[in-house]
Amino acid sequence: MLGRVLVGGAIPILMLTTFAMHSLYHLAGPTLAFILNASWIILGIIATVFYRSQALGIISAVGGVLVPFLIESNSPNALVFIGYETLLYIAFLYVAIKQKYSILYVLSAVLLNLTLLIYYSFVGDNGVKELLGMAILIQHLCLISSFFLSQSVLQVYAFTLLSSLAVTYGWLLAVFDDGTTTMVLLALVIIYAVGVYAVRSSKEKFEFFITYLIVAVAFFIHQLVDLREGVILYVIQGLAVYYIAMTYKNLLHQLFSYTIYILSATYILVTPIEQVLSLPTLNWLVVLASILVFIWISIQKTEQDEHDTFKIGGSIVFSILSLIFATEVTAAGTNHLSANPQTLIMTAVWLGLSIAAFVIGSLKTFKTATYIGVGILFLTLFKLVLYDLPFIPMAIRALLFIVLGAIGLIISRLFYKKK
């Protein structure tokens, strides 16, 4: 224990001595000072392995990233700086994996990103963006390889890789143009897709690689298309993730699917429909269709006693959204008309939905649809009495009540015959 403490203290003392010799007393030039400091870090790595001490590794890693900042040079070389920091990271990553040092594993990744971020904040563009991007990609590929090749699945490895994926995307946006970023993300999607196939025999690794693939695809979609134009892709992705989550009974994937689906669907639902034939209309239709698919997946992947819950709940949501969609489309299509025709057409559309729901319920013996049709019929009646009457002439008003009464008699007759 005493030997480890002495060696741990010796590394920073050697570095401080070299710094004083170089910067304060000018006894060594930049090259010699760099070589000496690099030698002390190599000594620290050797001591880390020899004494099997994670603390020595942490001290050496922190000291290692500071080496370039301790060197005074009139012509600093970006390639040397970024190359040194990247090689240093790979060295400590290798030690962390071999010795199973989880703290050193995470710390080395954090230190590389932090060091490059500080360097980027001082240097700016200045022709180093590509080098920074390459360093970050090398780090991410190293993390993928270490997780893929590890014999056991360590949670710290898995979540470090997930965090690295998000950080890497941030770096890509900062240092690369849109075309390069898109191509890199596509390459990462392919790598993770291959990884999913390669680790399919390992349940834990398979589930984690599925998660990485989901996140990578989300980033790729975000990069590939504008949110307004590509939000449909997120809805589809949310459904695909939900199917995977329900197939493999993975709670994390379910949370991912809910998050992706709800956020994208909400964005679509709050976007007003200004024209009947427009992108928002198409988006709405996709959401409505996706709800039916969502219900189908839930029924297929859950126990028998849960089926009615999904049927009823999903049908109610689908009916409410269908009513809202029909209202918005009708309003967009009749905005050039006066108030009376608008009101009549809207009422007719609501009646049509009520009849359609009731017919579906009758033909498919799907009771929920029948009850929904009755509910829409009552809503239409309330709308007619509470809102439409002032805008409708007396003759048309009487005709509407006759039609509503006839529909009500037909529905009650059908209910009576079923009983």
List keywords for this structure.
419 residues, mainly alpha, 84% helix, 0% strand
Would you give an account of this structure?
This protein is mainly α. It is 84% helix and 0% strand. It has 16 helices and no strands.
What's a quick, concise take on this entry?
This protein has 419 residues and is an all-alpha fold. It is 84% helix and 0% strand.
Give the distance, in angstroms, between the N- and C-terminal Cα atoms: 86 Å
Secondary-structure-derived class = mainly alpha
Shape verdict: elongated
Unreliable spans are: none
Helix percent reads over 70%
Q: Please, what is the average pLDDT?
A: 81
Major β-sheet annotation: none
- Total number of β-strand segments? 0
The proportion of strand residues reads under 5%
How many H/I helical runs?
A: 16
Order of helices and strands: HHHHHHHHHHHHHHHH
Give a topology summary.
Elements: H1 2-24, H2 30-51, H3 54-66, H4 78-99, H5 102-123, H6 129-149, H7 155-175, H8 178-198, H9 203-224, H10 227-248, H11 251-269, H12 279-301, H13 307-333, H14 339-363, H15 367-388, H16 394-418
